[in-house]
From TrEMBL:
<feature type="domain" description="Glycine dehydrogenase C-terminal">
    <location>
        <begin position="790"/>
        <end position="911"/>
    </location>
</feature>
<keyword id="KW-0560">Oxidoreductase</keyword>
<protein>
    <recommendedName>
        <fullName>Glycine dehydrogenase (decarboxylating)</fullName>
        <ecNumber>1.4.4.2</ecNumber>
    </recommendedName>
</protein>
<dbReference type="Pfam" id="PF02347">
    <property type="entry name" value="GDC-P"/>
</dbReference>
<dbReference type="InterPro" id="IPR003437">
    <property type="entry name" value="GcvP"/>
</dbReference>
<dbReference type="GO" id="GO:0004375">
    <property type="term" value="F:glycine dehydrogenase (decarboxylating) activity"/>
</dbReference>
<dbReference type="InterPro" id="IPR015421">
    <property type="entry name" value="PyrdxlP-dep_Trfase_major"/>
</dbReference>
<dbReference type="InterPro" id="IPR015422">
    <property type="entry name" value="PyrdxlP-dep_Trfase_small"/>
</dbReference>
<feature type="domain" description="Glycine cleavage system P-protein N-terminal">
    <location>
        <begin position="8"/>
        <end position="447"/>
    </location>
</feature>
<dbReference type="InterPro" id="IPR049315">
    <property type="entry name" value="GDC-P_N"/>
</dbReference>
<comment type="function">
    <text>The glycine cleavage system catalyzes the degradation of glycine. The P protein binds the alpha-amino group of glycine through its pyridoxal phosphate cofactor; CO(2) is released and the remaining methylamine moiety is then transferred to the lipoamide cofactor of the H protein.</text>
</comment>
<dbReference type="InterPro" id="IPR049316">
    <property type="entry name" value="GDC-P_C"/>
</dbReference>
<keyword id="KW-0663">Pyridoxal phosphate</keyword>
<dbReference type="InterPro" id="IPR020581">
    <property type="entry name" value="GDC_P"/>
</dbReference>
<comment type="similarity">
    <text>Belongs to the GcvP family.</text>
</comment>
<feature type="domain" description="Glycine cleavage system P-protein N-terminal">
    <location>
        <begin position="476"/>
        <end position="742"/>
    </location>
</feature>
<dbReference type="InterPro" id="IPR015424">
    <property type="entry name" value="PyrdxlP-dep_Trfase"/>
</dbReference>
Length: 969
């Protein structure tokens, strides 16, 4: 009896289905009797992938640097062995990362629930109302606590949020200065990241001890204050903000949200922008991430906000409905004129943080903060008893304690006792208290400083003040909306989370065929380890001996990713694909500067490229020059050569996506890369479409010098409703020294012996390290053969869809042999011309058939880009095909006059249950056609909670916080 492998479980296409699909494509599915012969599906892959880059299947997968596939039990056992090499000590380091208690109801019903972690970005808002409501809660929470009018739906982490705040200040300020003032008491990782980002765009950073009274420069465009400071100091920055405003500067504050339940808000002190992290709202430290950063702005700056913004609009019958607002996916519209390259968020973690606030409510949060502040003040008292001096009189949760000459000894003794403290310098120890800190922890710390060995703990009343200055105590209310008051019991919370999940469409309901997004299965075994304490409870700046298991796992994953891409070195630090793009371009920039080629600043980008490419190039200090594409969707070689010749002396890089954004393998890719290299440029290959290449070709072999990879696409990290993303950057040896390093990393050396000397692009040394066990497990369980089989299955499914739908919808682009890659673009423009039915109508009607629509109007307006991935079985693929065929027939019926152009099931879609039963049915089509266009839906029907949403109404009437309950009456 054959034992089923993980790859068999992950890949939906069975042997029998594969034979049927190949037959449909005109390929003989009969396996050869010759054991040396290629499998029939290899014929399809040879037709699709250019021969110049095609890698034949190795005779022996043992030759691969990827280990042979492990079973699920074996992979978990290996992960357990790695986890056992980590040591979870009590984290009292602080620096923006704190121990927190994740309510079990949130861990089980959000983080571990596929209804939440397999959802995608809410581009179809009618079937995303649950996560959009959770994000509205998040925005309301942030806006209330920061005292600013509008918050976005999350940032990548605190440090990158500060960098985005700097860029926003530069855009919004009327000052002509290039000076941005940085608080000397800012988090050290934020200072390092700001230096990376500022250098590329010509910003001059000036550090000032603002709390110590140092004056601002005469000219500046912005000022940044940490509130409370990294040292724990709490002070009133309002005078600094006022001074900045006098010279047309923008005031940015990085604020601790838990502290803001007790402290005056940044908005009340005069800040224009507030940024920070929501990590301590129930999201584990996870060795640095993923966590949801945040950004909020005062009135007048809403349209400057980067990232995602959820707004309130209304549906076709006037019912309140949520959707993404304003600058959503602005990179695809504005490209090199985009103000940020961030096109995603940290939705899953933002949902967790918002639900932490919903569960605890304002009183609960205030009580947690008061206990933290009270314990920090109690520790101060005990330490003063020992003769140590606490540097600052006013603080929330962090103390800097002076012990001349003894800091290193105390930190080492604390580590031996299972407590992590921070050595600030030779004479100073940093200590942070959080909601997990116990009185025993406080006593142990005091003993380390020479305090009493025995102490009687009496009644402790956690006052609301601790050691906070009275003038800065908060007096205004926050989180007043009913959502933060009515879900106190676990029963109520569980039901609320279930209610929201039921409003959404995720992979646990059916296929999400979004082109360019690779919505594959996130297997339960891959997910299992991320909540193990040995991974989840690690502080990102824990000593190296505490994190040996995680570092070993990271080294292995780096080596595996280098192997499958044909590169030499990999940095896992970028915490989104956009940040991986930026890191790769910064590496190219660093390489040219090191060679004395300061003039090489031009980046060639095909017109079909992902919009983030152009935005990333601008943020890397490059000038974008667009290269045309031909009628087949390939790079126009004549235009490329002309652009290379015109910019020969200034050419820095070419960015291309392979396979192309149009879903085809360009035959001349090696000619393209060779031409760029001959002119002295470097080649950046966007790794978004690696799922069509893995095991059959490698970026490094086709001429790539550097690429980012989307672990949330090809390597099975969940999309989580729009994040977390993980976008490692991989490079050839000559660019490796310029990849992102980190001054607080536990070790300098990476897999292959490389040392990265580039500046950091995320706050934590290894980015979103907490979810890396997912991709490690994916590669470990798939093995080299499984990875290759997954690619073949994805390409087979895409070509099968293209072939079966070709007579109903033209397939816009194919390769020289008529094949597509892992996705196909269906052209709906002829449908609109003949029937009046638009791509939006088809997308919304697919909801009635129980599907999430494919990617709409990208990269070509009026089209649908379909990507089935390898995870879907033939029955689900056929169900989608049949839905698309029937929708075409419905459109033809409109053209034939069977239904009016303004009253048919397509323009009326999607149909809610209420729309079928409320009042008289007055439509030209029947209720049955509206709700059950195919009989199979009778058994399991997904009902959208709202009708088609009016997008323009929401932008005209911008509301980005929880609407009042009366709105839903």
């Amino acid at each position: 009896m054959r034992v089923t492998s993980f790859a068999d479980r992950h890949i939906g296409i069975t042997t029998e289905a594969r034979q049927q699909m190949l037959t449909t494509l005109g390929i003989d599915p009969t396996p050869s009797l010759d054991p040396e012969a290629e499998a029939p599906i290899e014929n399809l892959m040879r037709q699709a992938v250019p021969a110049s880059i095609f890698m034949g299947r190795a005779a022996d997968d043992d030759a691969s640097g990827i280990p042979m596939a492990a079973s699920e039990a074996e992979a978990l056992a290996e992960l357990r062995a790695l986890a056992n090499r980590n040591t979870v000590n009590r984290p009292m380091i602080g620096l923006g990362y704190h121990g927190t208690l994740t309510p079990s109801v949130i861990q089980r019903n959000v983080l571990e629930n596929p209804s939440w972690y397999t959802a995608y970005t809410p581009y179809q808002p009618e079937i995303s109302q649950g996560r959009l409501e959770a994000l509205i809660n998040f925005q309301t929470m942030v806006s209330d606590l920061t005292g600013l009018s509008t918050a976005n739906s999350s940032m990548l982490d605190e440090s990158t949020a500060v960098a985005e705040g700097m860029l926003l200040a530069r855009r919004a300020s009327k000052s002509k200065s290039n000076v941005f003032v940085v608080d000397a008491d800012a988090l050290p990782q934020t200072k390092s990241l700001l230096a990376t980002r500022a250098a590329a765009v010509g910003v001059e950073l000036v550090e000032r001890d603002l709390a110590g009274g140092e004056k601002l420069p005469e000219e500046l465009f912005g000022v940044f204050v940490q509130y409370p400071g990294a040292s724990g100091r709490v002070w009133d920055p309002s005078a600094v903000f006022d001074a900045a405003h006098l010279v047309n500067g923008i005031a940015v504050a990085a604020a601790d949200l838990l502290a803001l339940t007790l402290l005056r808000s940044p908005g009340s002190l005069g800040a224009d922008v507030a940024v920070g992290t929501t990590q301590r709202f129930g999201v584990p430290m996870a060795f640095g991430g993923p966590h949801a950063g945040y950004m909020a702005v005062r009135a007048g700056l809403e349209r400057q906000l980067p990232g995602r913004l959820v707004g309130v609009s209304q549906d076709a019958v006037g019912y309140p409905a949520y959707r993404l607002a304003l600058q959503t996916r602005e990179q695809h519209i504005r490209r090199e004129k985009a103000t940020s390259n961030i096109c995603t968020a940290q939705v899953l973690l933002a949902v967790m943080a918002s639900m932490y606030a919903v569960y605890h409510g304002p009183d609960g949060l205030r009580a947690i903060a008061a206990e933290v502040a009270g314990k920090a003040a109690l520790l101060r008292d005990w330490l003063v008893e020992t003769g140590a001096s606490v540097v600052h009189d006013a603080f929330f949760d962090t103390l800097n304690v002076r012990v001349p000459g003894r800091a290193a000894t105390i930190v080492a003794d604390a580590h031996a006792a299972g407590i992590l403290l921070r050595p600030v310098d030779a004479d100073t120890v940093g200590i942070a208290v959080d909601e997990t800190t116990t009185f025993t922890d406080l006593h142990q710390v005091a003993v380390l400083f020479g305090g009493k060995e025995e102490r009687v703990f009496g009644f402790f009343g956690a006052g609301s003040e601790g050691a906070l200055p009275e003038a800065l105590l908060r007096e205004d209310e926050y989180l007043t909306h009913p959502v933060f008051h009515v879900h106190r019991s676990e029963t109520a919370m569980m039901r609320y989370l279930k209610q929201l999940a039921d409003r959404d469409y995720a992979l646990d309901r059916g296929m999400i065929p979004l082109g360019s997004c690779t919505m594959k299965l996130n297997a339960a075994t891959e997910m299992a380890a991320i909540t193990w304490p040995e991974f989840a409870q690690l502080h990102p700046f824990a000593p190296v001996e505490d994190v040996e298991g995680s570092l070993a796992m990271i080294d292995q994953l780096e080596a595996w990713l280098a192997e499958v891409t044909g590169y030499d070195a990999v940095s896992l630090q970028p915490n989104a694909g956009s940040q991986g793009e930026l890191a790769g371009l910064l590496a190219i920039r660093g390489y040219h500067l090191a060679n004395g080629d300061e003039q090489r600043t031009v980046c060639l980008i095909p017109s079909s490229a992902h919009g983030t490419n152009a935005a990333s190039a601008v943020l890397a200090g490059m000038k974008v020059v667009v290269v045309a594409t031909d009628e087949l969707g390939n790079v126009d070689l004549d235009d490329l050569h002309a652009k290379i010749e015109a910019n020969a002396e200034t050419l820095s890089a070419l960015m291309i996506t392979y396979p192309s954004t149009h879903g085809v393998y360009e035959e001349q890719v090696t000619d393209i890369t060779a031409a760029v290299h001959a002119a002295g440029g470097q080649v950046y290959v966007d790794g978004a479409n690696l799922n069509a290449l893995l095991g059959y070709a490698r970026f490094g072999d086709l001429g790539g010098d550097v690429s980012h990879l989307n672990l949330h696409k090809t390597f099975a990290i969940p999309h989580g409703g729009g994040g977390p993303g993980v976008g490692p950057v991989a490079a050839k040896a000559h660019l490796a020294p310029y990849l992102p390093g980190h001054p607080q990393a536990q070790q300098a050396e990476h897999a292959g012996g490389y040392v990265f000397e580039g500046g950091p692009v995320s706050g934590a040394p290894y980015g979103s390290a907490g979810v890396l066990p997912i991709s490690w497990a994916y590669v470990r369980m798939m093995g080299p053969g499984g990875l290759r089989d997954a690619t073949a299955a994805a390409v087979l499914s895409a070509n099968y869809i293209a072939a079966r739908l070709a007579e109903h919808y033209p397939v816009l682009y194919t390769g020289e042999q008529g094949r597509v890659a892992h996705e196909c673009i269906l052209d709906l423009r002829p449908l609109k011309e003949t029937t009046g039915i638009t791509v939006d109508d088809v997308a919304k009607r697919l909801i009635d058939y129980g599907f999430h629509a494919p990617t709409m109007s990208f990269p070509v307006a009026g089209t649908l880009m379909v990507e089935p991935t390898e995870s879907e079985d033939l029955a689900e693929v056929d169900r989608f095909i049949e839905a698309m065929i029937q929708i075409k027939a419905e459109a033809d019926a409109v053209a034939a006059g069977t239904w009016p152009a303004d009253d048919n099931p397509l323009v009326g879609a999607p149909h809610t249950a209420e729309s079928l039963i409320a009042g008289e049915w007055e439509h030209a089509y029947s209720r049955e056609v509206a709700a059950y266009p195919v009989r199979s839906l009778m058994a399991a029907k997904y009902w959208p909670p709202v009708r088609r949403i009016d997008q323009a109404y929401g932008d005209r009437n911008l509301v980005c916080a929880c609407p009042p309950i009366e709105a839903f009456a």
